[in-house]
Design a protein that fits this description.
The protein contains eleven helices and ten strands. By secondary structure, it is of the alpha/beta class. A six-stranded mixed β-sheet has the order 1-2-10-7-8-9, with helices on both faces. Helix 7 (about 180-190) links the parallel strand 7 (about 170-175) and strand 8 (about 200-205). Helix 6 (about 150-165) packs across helix 7 (about 180-190). The longest helix has 18 residues, at about 150-165. Bound molecules: pyridoxal-5'-phosphate (PLP). Pyridoxal-5'-phosphate binds near residues 72, 178, 181, 183 and 293. Homodimer.
Length: about 325
Amino acid sequence: MQIISAPQNFNEEELYVDLQPIFGHSLYLKCEGFNFAGSIKLKAAAEMVAAAEREGVLHRGSVLIESSSGNLGVALSMIAASKGYGFLCVTDSRCNLSTRRLMEALGGRVHIITEPDANGDFLGARIDYVRALCASDDRYVWPNQYTNPYNWKAHYRTTAPAIAHQFPRLGVLFAGVGTTGTLMGCARYFAEWHRPVRIVAIDSVGSVAFGGTPGRRMLPGLGTSVRPPLLDESFVDDVVRVEEADAIRACHRMARHGFLFGGSTGTVVSGASAWLRQHDVPGDLDAVTIAPDLGERYLDTLYQTNWLHDLYGEHVLSDEVVAAGSRRS
Ligand SMILES: Cc1ncc(COP(=O)(O)O)c(C=O)c1O
């Protein structure tokens, strides 16, 4: 039995899904959605808040403020409620309605940016808004997940050692790219480990994390429109870029087996499968990837037929249906 008095004190750290029966590769998926914030962002939020408290910048009367596509906002709303701080999430029109409602239910306020900045960039516009508010009122405390080292340190301290403990023969780790907190925390940990681990970053097509031209991205969480300040490419061995339609197909394939995950999980799983099709992992080594959240927050988007057809065309799932049909026959 585990008894807690603060929601951030619970996190399921030991759950993996074996994806072999679904994708045909030996690949283990670490599930990070089983906590009261419903995502891996609980770890970054808790670590950044604890650091701000230690450093004396966060105290009674403070209002946390953060730019988030949703999951970090939910985690910060929860921690702020638990500790008695205010919270304001600055997001944009791509934030799911259910995620916004969750933040509000937890007592957070949500400000939605509807116009991109002069470069057509929503993230830039969100950050400009946060900066302006912080300059106007010193009650605001901005953890700034994009530059805060405690974002990656959370994963260096928890996620990576948990994987190392369960998979002492880890050969390759696939991590999605948002702020790169998860990727960098794990990559830095395994760079110091007793044996080499191949670190593969999974990014979305249309993201500029590793260069390239920006493009439309509708799945929140993964990909970025500016180069992530936390990213140090020298820790990354390979990069795979995934089309959103492929990420969606991976999500629906898992759903057909009863596993409902979010869009960034579809992205990492699709990217990991593509990489595993082209590379041999020695049979005695394990391949692991990370599911940042679960699927319920995406019922109105990636699990909704009209949304899918409007954005990705009517045939976005047809290959997947064929694949699922042939698998069952
Ligand atoms: C659903 C989801 N997946 C992936 C990520 C990316 O994680 P990171 O910011 O650690 O790169 C996030 C971050 O917000 C997320 O919310």
